[in-house]
Amino acid sequence: ETAVAYPQFESVQSLIEAQVAKGPDRIAVICDENELSYGELSERSNRLAHYLIEQGVEPGSRVGICLDPGIDLMVSILGAIKAGAAYVPMDTGYPKERLAFMLKDAACPVLLTQSCMETKLPGHRGSTVLVDRDWSSIAEKPASQPEVAITPESLLYVIYTSGSTGTPKGAGVYHRNEINLLQWYVQE
User: Which of 48, 80, 93, 117: disulfide with 87, CB 3.0–4.6 Å?
Assistant: First the structure.
């Protein structure tokens, strides 16, 4: 008997939006001297999600994210999720060849990064969005959450491992997996 009842959420974004509803002015992200409230995080990620949808991102797409830790990273992850995509985290220290392999293997239509990373990144078939430089265009998009169907069975992210052969392998994590893990963390 290991079954445990916990609140049911359809997606990671619905879990976060529940926190937004509880306290939109509460601090969600702190990085150095910068802070972002839950309301601000939700609004910024909604704008980015609408922008990504206009760039061709749709449910089931994969969005590469190559950003240093910080507020832009958090907004980008949640924005990709709200667009219905799975995000593909890419370490800014990886060699270009590994990043190129990941972008191609995951078939990312969009790569989110910053202008300081532009010359360190490989070319790819998709588009590159520089979240710092392109923010004025992103900020013009609606602040409302996009209406995108996301279920517990939707892919949340793809993490690349080195693989036993030395070739990176992508492993998918679904919303249901992450929600289960997060609920366990909260309970423990």
Answer: 80
